[in-house]
Amino acid sequence: MAGVLVALLLLAGATYAGVRFVLKSDEPEAASRNPAPAQSAPGQTAGAAPTGPATEPAGTQQPAAPPSLAKPVVLEQITLGREPEGVAVAPDNRTLYVADQDSKDVHFVDVQSKQVSVVKVPNTPRFLALSADGGRLYVSLFENDFTGNGLAVIDTANRTLVKTIRTGPRPFEPAVAPDGKVWVPIHNGARVEIYDDKTLTEAARISVPPNPHWIVFTPDGRTAFTANHESSQISVVSVADRLVRKNFKVGKSPHALAVTPDGKRLVATNYDLDTVEIYDTGDQRLIHKVAVGKEPQAVMVSGDSRHAYIVNEGSDNLSVIDLSSGRVVSTVRVGDSPRVNALSPDGKRLYVTDGRGKTVTVLRVSEE
Question: What SS3 state is found at 216?
């Protein structure tokens, strides 16, 4: 009888341990279904800061990126809309998406034929983010008087508006997390709003210092960084529990961010200082501070993690930084008042929206 009792206790313990393991692995999804926001104070430092560079999860090895060019080659300029701003590229590299912020148009551009179709949205489109499979385009919306705040969801295959979600005031550059959820920096709300990609409802909120412009993730999906423009800080956020682990000071007015594909470096543009700062993603140690053109607004990193391409709105050019040496290795002229850039998934083309020029500049950025 004693032996049977011990066996039953062991079996019960094993079953309980198994249940705990399943619940733990499902916690992020459970949080996404709970509409109650998860708040964290701007200065919160609870828990240990993420350490070490991010790496790709096992079994997700990607094909090697082509070698990047130190001096990109301008191929053409596509005339488009009234004031092109946000830009994204489809996973198959064939379609370019552009938000026209002087209209209510989102342009779909065939890269080869240059044929353009338009999807109308309810309010002025600003910035874009694309789901990993390219099936959904997320568009931040707001008017110049800060009304009409929202996130438009577009079905890219059918080219139809699926839903418009009401957001906080002035949603800036949205970002799709590796788990598919959509993170939206709320400029005038000092917070990030997170939306479930299945229900298209709000799943959580995270408080950050004023005023967030940009969000990027490490390749492993564990850490997010937000550029908090007016407070001259970057927040380090744990994606799993949505807690701000650290806020650290940068030069001034960080506008845009990029993480290198190898997960080792974080690149930040200091809009009001005309500089770019390069940090270690693990301990947020400053590695390089680089002078660039006037009003650096956006940044993309080459697929091989060697170069950063900086859009300088005030000087109508692109600064190319060698990330190893921290030097500007070339400067390339683009259109009038460049705003945002996007790299094609194959690493071969860079697209820059030229706001006042009403064009998109196309550059070859690889040796292939």
Answer: strand
